[in-house]
Amino acid sequence: MGVTGWGLVGAAWGDGVEMRGLELINQGALGRQETDADLIVESLGFAPILPTFWTTPMKSLASFLISATLSAFVAGSALANPAAAAPAAAKPDLAKGEAAFAMCAACHAADGNSTTPVNPKLAQQHPEYLVKQLKEFKSGKRANAVMSGMAAGLSDDDMRNIGYWLASKSAKPGFAKDKDTVALGERIYRGGIPDRQIAACASCHSPNGAGMPAQYPRVSGQHADYTTAQLVAFRDGVRKNSVQMTQVAAKMNDREIKAVSDYMAGLR
């Protein structure tokens, strides 16, 4: 790079340049050899800098460029991976979950294993599913006068604490009671009803009814009366918080619903 070229770059930088130095450069009175530092600066995308006696000393400049490059790298990494920059969610507090669940025990039992057939067992249920249902009771997306009232005073943290505490409890097994429909229930649960394009329940809720975490609820051992009531509610448009379940139940008759509900009660 010629000496005059340095003068042009100096003019572009402006305030930090002394006019006398600029004149000397343009007159060819001073020369300067390119150094390794120049190559580093150029490789980082910056224009070459004036000699050290006109502007910031080269050591200070190098320190500045290194700091700026590292800052840009850190910022770019955060933008590329926002999850890494986001703070981790607070760990559920199981003790608080147990305390908050005390008001639910009258219907769902102290350990989440309801003994009342119309009230669901909640022990060992996936916490994400429980939190979703509580939020939808609170918002009104899932209609139930009793549960909407219970959920109204719960914060998101309360719901998480309750959900994870219930997930930590062991579910007690249930039993199928109707021997006349158990074969029909098993056929629907494991193979669906192909001629009506009803998928097998096991494809989402797993062969043993354990469900899939964060996706589909546990159904094994659940009270048949409760499951029947929910399938009828989906079919009749009373429960509207799962399009998938509404579509499945809409194609089932009462006998099929009762058969598969009773079969699921005996899964383990």
How would you describe the overall organization of this protein?
The chain has 268 residues and is mainly α. It folds into 3 domains: 3-85, no CATH class; 94-167, Cytochrome Bc1 Complex, Chain D, domain 2 (Orthogonal Bundle); 182-265, Cytochrome c-like domain (Cytochrome Bc1 Complex, Chain D, domain 2, Orthogonal Bundle), CATH 1.10.760.10. The protein has 15 helices and no strands. Helix 8 (127-139) crosses helix 9 (145-151). It is globular and about 70 Å long. The relative contact order is 0.09.
User: What is the N-to-C succession of helices and strands?
Assistant: HHHHHHHHHHHHHHH
Rg over CA atoms = 35 Å
CATH topology of the largest domain: Cytochrome Bc1 Complex, Chain D, domain 2
Main beta sheet: strand number and arrangement? Answer: none
Shape: globular
Assign the CATH architecture of the largest domain.
Orthogonal Bundle
Tally of strands: 0
CATH class category of the largest domain:
Mainly Alpha
Task: Summarize the amount of helix as a percent range.
Answer: 40-55%
Going by helix content, strand content and strand pairing, the class is mainly alpha
**CATH homologous superfamily classification of the largest domain:** Cytochrome c-like domain
Assembly of the depicted chains: single chain
Tally of separate domains: 3
End-to-end Cα distance? 80 Å
State the helix count: 15
| Fraction in beta strands | under 5%
Low-confidence stretches: 1-32, 37-56
- The averaged pLDDT comes out at 81
